[in-house]
Amino acid sequence: MKKDFLWWRDGIIYQIYPRSFADSNNDGIGDLPGITNKLDYLQDLGIDAIWLSPIYPSPDVDFGYDVADYTGIDPKFGTMADFETLVKEAKKRDIHIVLDLVLNHTSDQHPWFIESKKTEDNPYHNWYLWLYPKSDGEPPNNWTAIFGGSAWEFDPKLGQYYYHMFYKEQPDLNWRNSDVRQAMLDVFRFWLGKGVDGFRLDVFNAYFKDAAFRDNPPKWGIRAFDRQEHIHDVSQPEMIPLLGEIRAILDEHPGGYAVGETFLANPSQTAAYCGENKLHAAFNFDFAENRWHPKRFLDSAEKWYGALEPGAWPNNFLSNHDKVRAASRYCFGEDDRRAKVALAMLLTLKGTPFIYYGEEIALRDIPIRKKSEVLDPIGKTFWPFFKGRDGCRAPMQWTSGRNAGFSDAKPWLPVHKDYVERNVVNQAAQADSVLMFFKRLVALRKSEPALQRGDFKALTPDPHTYLAFERSLAADRLVVLLNFSSREVQAALPEGKWQAIFGRDGEFENSLDLAPYQVVILKQK
Ligand code: GLC
Ligand code: CA
Predict the structure, then answer these.
(1) Considering the domain boundaries, does residue 2 fall inside one?
(2) Which residues line ligand 1 (CB under 6 A)?
(3) CA 306 to ligand 2 center in whole angstroms
(4) Do the domain assignments include residue 449?
């Protein structure tokens, strides 16, 4: 590996939803030893880091995003010793660990909250946001919860309301309390001490709310949550100095990294949280939410690059545990051609690629047909308008054997029925599979630093069929051609002689014909 290789800038980050990756003890739920058993697979894929969705003790009202202990491991995932083994084995393979920190809220089963609701003078009372009703008994203000209803839950014993942006079982912490702030900064230190190198910060820009709890102004929208402008319940200015404190802790750890999930923020607001004394990176949802059109992706990518200050590095993702998978959104049936183009785009655009487990075999969402099958709480609340997020959280498909090789027991969510064909073993044996395509491209990316950290220049300002861009670093110039269309197209090349290094053989000048959905990469001779 090159000496100046910086894992979170030059590498590839792979998100694992631990419940669904690999089940080592056959209870139907994926676990840490399951992940450790698959490290050779991950190393062979060529990824550089894994981001684990939450693994802490949790009552699972929101499947791990309701944390009951920030420095423990949920027994369903294993033990702290299992975690330590995972870190050690990952390190041997140059794989970094990124943990998901959910610090905006805890579980209502967290000992802090249990104390907090005992009495008003309990030392933990002020760790959460407790307020008295208005004189008419109504909630303190008009804030709504994104998971439905008022954001205020009344506790008859205390005669006070507590605030929750998500479920009522996810009370928001009071970040203005310096004890909370210190406890949270200690969580970073604890995991860094365990050998973790990075963190994904769940809805970090929601930590602070308006100090005076002013009402949000109304606006037009369909859901109650969308009928107000969220100016007082998220994105408060106090977040910037806090990010500086977090960054200082990370900077003491070589290669320390944080990527933020901004909540209800547009790309320029999101970008403002990244850079010196702030986060290393944040997710650009605008990019992930595009429909299948090369111009849409190019415009979001360029807007994002333009919004980031020097010292912040972009990243790109299309799928995660909250969204319908890219392959389900973009592909027709079992045709994987668009999935390949999408992966090639992630691996070649400027920015760290985030790959969601199974994306390398173009895993599809499982269909959610009946309300009674839904496990995700937001699917239950908003059915049938929104069916929840179970679809993208189904088990990884390893083999054509029982339960796709995920578990011998009935998995917590059903396996997609295409697993007999779509699985790792099958795809590893087929040269033209998504998996083999992905691995070839990852290998090329590793050998061409220009694809990792090179400058970016679009060659097609107004692309309608194919996307063409240049990545250049020092004397290296590469051209990437991605045909988004089902038609053959002729791509114009910049001046010079170009050697095909991916997707084709031969040398080209002036132009090159791209087959439907073809991906070609060229290097200047
Ligand atoms: C983030 C997570 C999501 C979770 C929510 C509340 O958006 O990605 O899964 O439900 O925060 O923690
Ligand atoms: Ca298990």
Answers:
(1) no
(2) 62, 65, 102, 166, 202-203, 261, 321-322
(3) 44
(4) no
List of residues 6+ apart from 145 with CB closer than 8 A: 151, 164, 165, 166, 167, 168, 225
Ligand nearest to the CA of 395: 2
Of 414, 442, 470, the residue that ends a domain is 442
- Whether residue 168 is contained in a domain is answered as no
**Are residues 340 and 419 part of one domain?**
yes
Residues 330 and 467 in one domain: no
Domain shared by 390 and 284, yes or no = yes
Largest CA distance in the chain: 78
Q: Is residue 447 part of a domain?
A: no
List the one residue out of 519, 8, 5 whose CA is nearest residue 313.
Answer: 8
Cβ contact 247:279 at 8 Å: yes
Q: Which ligand is nearest to the CA of 146?
A: 1
Q: Distance between CA 233 and CA 216 in Å, rounded?
A: 8
Active site residues: 202, 252
> Where in the sequence is the domain holding 126, given as residue range(s)?
111-163
Q: Could you tell me the two tokens for 331?
A: 């592909």
Q: Are residues 157 and 16 in the same domain?
A: no
Could you tell me the distance, in angstroms and rounded to a whole number, from the CA of residue 23 to the centre of ligand 2?
Answer: 4
For residue 523, list its beta bridge partners. Answer: 478, 499
- Domain count along the chain: 3
The CATH number of the domain holding residue 509 is: 2.60.40.1180
Same structural domain, 190 and 209: yes
Tens-binned pLDDT, residue by residue, of the chain (525 aa): 467 899 999 999 999 999 999 999 999 999 999 999 999 999 999 999 999 999 999 999 999 999 999 999 999 999 999 999 999 999 999 999 999 999 999 999 999 999 999 999 999 999 999 999 999 999 999 999 999 899 999 999 999 999 999 999 999 999 999 999 999 999 999 999 999 999 999 999 999 999 999 999 999 998 899 999 999 999 999 999 999 999 999 999 999 999 999 999 999 999 999 999 999 999 999 999 999 999 999 999 999 999 999 879 999 999 999 999 999 999 999 999 999 999 999 999 999 999 999 999 999 999 999 999 999 999 999 999 999 999 999 999 999 999 999 999 999 999 999 999 999 999 999 999 999 999 999 999 999 999 999 999 999 888 999 999 999 999 999 999 999 999 999 999 999 999 999 999 999 999 999 999 999 999 999
User: Based on the domain organization, do 101 and 131 belong to the same domain?
Assistant: no
Mutate to test the pocket of ligand 1, among 15, 55, 165, 202 (most ligand atoms within 8 A of CB): 202
Shared domain for 245 and 354, answered yes or no, is yes
Tokens of 303: 């807007």
Which CATH number is 155's domain given? 3.90.400.10
Q: Are residues 239 and 120 in the same domain?
A: no
Strands (E) in 409-464, as ranges, are 455-458
CATH number at residue 19: 3.20.20.80
- Does the pTM surpass 0.90? The reply is yes
Which residues have a beta carbon within 5 Å of ligand 2, which is an ion? 23, 25, 27, 29, 31
Best of 203, 283, 354, 393 to mutate for ligand 1, by most ligand atoms within 8 A of CB?
203
Q: How far is CA 313 from CA 265, 274, 278, in A?
A: 18, 8, 12
Distance CA 53, CA 166 (A): 17
